[in-house]
DNA sequence: GATGAATGAGCATTCATTCAT
DNA sequence: GATGAATGAATGCTCATTCAT
């Protein structure tokens, strides 16, 4: 019998290693060999788990999507009030720390580039950035609409408002990455969501 | 002097060509030869004007910075009232169309990646993303502070507020690039700035 | 002893599988893993029976030699008359069908290449193409000489004549492989041997 | 202005180098770098002239076809009598020496393999072995039919006879390659064609 | 014996850059 | 200045072989 290996665990280990290198060096500059080293295995072994560099990339993309999405849902579920729900959702969107993906955050702009291009060239749905936005708009929009029904929020365009929240979230990420030491991601987000809600609340 | 002008013109032509290819194919996938073709010259000639692919990149980065900055300044200068100034500044930030850089927008995420990484690795200031943010914070912050002095805006953290505006701007770009056909960049920005200003204005 | 038999049977099974794949995909393009799959075993197991891909190749070579040789001998033994013997030998040489090696025939040119090169480089006798020719020349030459003694065949160079027969046989193979559908191997061979014998028979 | 280079000449130089290496080492074992070295250039330069190893192969194939074909035509044109024409054609078919391709001959079995496989897999016409046979059948068949009309040759199947001649030619090659030192290709061919013509000539 | 996970040497190909003309 | 031929370092990926279980 061959060595018994938890293939799923190993696969995730490689993926994690890859994400770190992607983040640190950029996708194009990432060598498969470096990924292997980081994962503590030989070059060839990576290919036992992932067909190609591209597949590794796709998986990284998915990994982030899934985990971020799940965090947002979970945090929103903790609250009943639309106001709190919305706030929790937005803050979770930006709470990369809780995902233990601190050193992986920088992969985002690369994935954005990749996602945008992929779509334009291949129409490859596996990488559709927009899908993410659609999902989040749904999530945040739900809270917004509830708030409007309850009369807590004024009549606003829920789609536009959720888009704005996501936009701010992404933008804050960017500024944080541009200057991690001095830019306080969490605080900026909190300040913003307060301001934002003041803007949409009745009263 | 005509010599000099010609040289500058040709250099810009190459730069423009490069930006288009960078945008369309991504930086890593862009071949110097393709740039040359697009610029209507021979491969070797690119090197008469730019030392390396990296310099071409730096120049592209600068080109965008300078032009966007100048547009924002100019638009803000057209108004006196802090409220209008702020609005004009934000909308200009997002008005890529006026820069005739429509087909170049997609270069942004790539430049973001590059800028972030450059800083972390080389500490290369030529690519400091943060510089841009500092500049814009200055610009928008000026209008905000003026408004607070005038009692138009409530007492808020000007730095945080400008950051939020830039964040939203960048984020809107992203959503627009992810789905150009259905996402209305201009309208989203306008809706947002109204909402935002409602949040900071004194009654 | 059943152990021994099983082992031999399995070995042949693998060899047969290998030959099929060699024939279908070419030697260089044949992966050990594919061979294993075809044989219904795991990759590593192939190595329990064959030291290396090269050994597999050698064995395939031998397998063909031995089986073809044996067929030719057997068919020739069925006749007494030199004329019939010669004809039977030539037709057997070309009767790949009877060897149940129809789908393996295409391996021949590969083995020829291999054999020729092997000799020039390593002087490896295990692969000596020429050995085959020497054997067949012996076999066919025997019938020819007998025929000359009997006065059935004119005085000819037996070596040259057997060479010619083998040459034609190999060549017909080639044409058949190049166009299996339209080239009738058997008929071509029969027509040829008649013609050939007319050339060497005394009136 | 760039270095002036006779691209066609250089291309042929590379092709010749490649053919030599293909012949000596076998196609699969041939490294592009070795080809480059043999041609006295750098690895990358090969790719300036040939898109890929496969293209190099195709070109080698064509090169042989064209040159062999032209030699045969030329030699046959030197004679009027069908008998001489046929003999000249056959001997030219086998006269690799006159093509200055002595050290390239061994490439043939590899090309045969390749050609046969190519056809079965891709249906790639660029490599159709059969095309060659069709051409030669035409050429030799012409002389045969003329001879039959003239009553020099008996009524035989021209197609079958030309096939047989080509078969013998290819087969002699093979034996010669298997044992260059002892096998006299030219003499074998001459002996054979005499014998063959004796078989088809009317008394 | 059998397995299949792991390995790493090996190779085709790309492309930024150089430089002779 | 402009050109494009030449270069060779760099890299993704393959696959024969090994070996722990």
Summary tags:
homotetramer, about 200 residues, mainly alpha, Arc Repressor Mutant, subunit A, Tetracycline Repressor, domain 2, DNA-binding
Number of strands of chain A: 0
The biggest beta sheet of chain A is recorded as: none
| Overall body shape of chain A | elongated
Content-based structural category of chain A: mainly alpha
Number of helices of chain A: 9
Protein described:
- The structure is a homotetramer of 203-residue chains.
- Chain A has 2 domains: 1-50, Arc Repressor Mutant, subunit A (Orthogonal Bundle); 53-200, Tetracycline Repressor, domain 2, CATH 1.10.357.
- Chain A is built from 9 helices and no strands.
- Chain A has helices at residues 7-25, 32-39, 43-49, 53-77, 82-93, 107-122, 129-149, 158-178, 185-200.
- Chain A is elongated and about 65 Å long.
- Chains A and B meet through helix 6, helix 7, helix 8 and helix 9 of A and helix 6, helix 7, helix 8 and helix 9 of B.
- The structure holds a DNA duplex (21 and 21 nucleotides).
Outline the secondary-structure elements.
The structure is a homotetramer of 203-residue chains.
Chain A: H1 7-25, H2 32-39, H3 43-49, H4 53-77, H5 82-93, H6 107-122, H7 129-149, H8 158-178, H9 185-200
The structure holds a DNA duplex (21 and 21 nucleotides).
Summarize the structure.
Four copies of one chain form a homotetramer. Chain A has 203 residues and is mainly alpha-helical.
């Amino acid at each position: 019998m061959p060595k018994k290996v938890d293939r799923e665990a190993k696969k995730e280990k490689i993926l994690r290693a890859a994400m770190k290198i992607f983040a640190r060096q950029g996708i194009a500059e990432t060598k498969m060999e470096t990924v292997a080293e980081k994962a503590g295995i030989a070059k060839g072994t990576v290919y036992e788990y992932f067909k190609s560099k591209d597949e590794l990339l796709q998986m990284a993309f998915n990994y982030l999507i899934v985990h971020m999405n799940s965090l947002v849902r979970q945090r929103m579920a903790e609250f009943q009030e639309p106001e709190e729900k919305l706030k929790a959702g937005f803050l979770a969107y930006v709470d990369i720390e809780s995902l233990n993906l601190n050193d992986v955050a920088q992969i985002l702009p690369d994935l954005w580039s990749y996602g945008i291009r992929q779509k334009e060239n291949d129409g490859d749905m596996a990488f559709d950035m927009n899908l993410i936005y659609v999902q989040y708009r749904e999530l945040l929009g739900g809270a917004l609409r509830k708030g409007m029904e309850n009369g807590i929020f004024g009549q606003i365009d829920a789609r536009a408002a959720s888009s704005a929240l996501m936009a701010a979230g992404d933008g804050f990420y960017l500024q944080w990455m541009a200057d991690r030491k001095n830019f306080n991601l969490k605080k900026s987000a909190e300040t913003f969501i307060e301001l934002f809600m003041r803007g949409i609340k009745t009263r």
